[in-house]
Design goal:
By secondary structure, this protein is an alpha+beta fold. It is 30% helix and 34% strand. The strands form three sheets. It has a five-stranded antiparallel β-sheet with strand order 2-3-6-4-5, sandwiched between helices. A four-stranded antiparallel β-sheet has the order 9-10-8-11, with helices on one face. A two-stranded antiparallel ribbon has the order 1-7. Helix 2 runs parallel beside helix 3. The longest helix is centred in the middle third of the chain and has 19 residues. It is elongated, with a radius of gyration of 23 Å. This is YigZ family protein. InterPro entries: EFG_III/V, Impact, Impact_N, Impact_N_sf, Impact_YigZ-like, Ribosomal_Su5_D2-typ_SF, UPF0029_Impact_C, UPF0029_Impact_CS. It comes from Spartinivicinus marinus.
Length: 205
Amino acid sequence: MSEQSESTYAIPAESIAVEHEVKRSRFIALVERIQDRQQALAAIEQIKIRYPDARHHCWAYVAGPPEGATSIAFNDDGEPQGTAGKPILNVVQHHKVGEVLVVVVRYFGGVKLGAGGLVRAYSGVTQAALEKLPTILKVPCITATVSCQYSFEPILKSLLPEYQGTIIDCQYTDHVEMAIQLPLENKQLMTAAITNKSKGQAKIT
């Protein structure tokens, strides 16, 4: 069996944008759901196309669960080092949201904010965006392969709904080999039920 995370976590339910103005500079925080680094970088490029005349496009993302992320990155995009990307990431990690990208677009208003002012501005608009962000809980799932005799297939199929399992693939040779997916929290109960119903004849890998 292959497992993802051991607990549920919040992910963005939709994309949103929140705007703040600080000393005539406009800061627009855009939040999107991403699942990996490739998706994040592609989304950043699309945002740059949407806001081509902005002075900066600073960003941070967390791919995967907030605890044990598969990829984390941030970028200051020309702002003084440590004043934009890292503050954005700090707020994201504090909110414990996974699969999330935050890009803060800045239109310079002619007044320099200083390092402290930039950190507060980027953190503040990110905080406002994440407080507004609708989220849903992602339930980690496992995949497993069940090998059984043809006679057990109807029983196996009848067990799946009880444990929120779904069939991903099914191969028929001299036996049935079924790939299933189900919530991680139901793994042990489903395994016990299959073993019990098949009297140990069904093999789960």
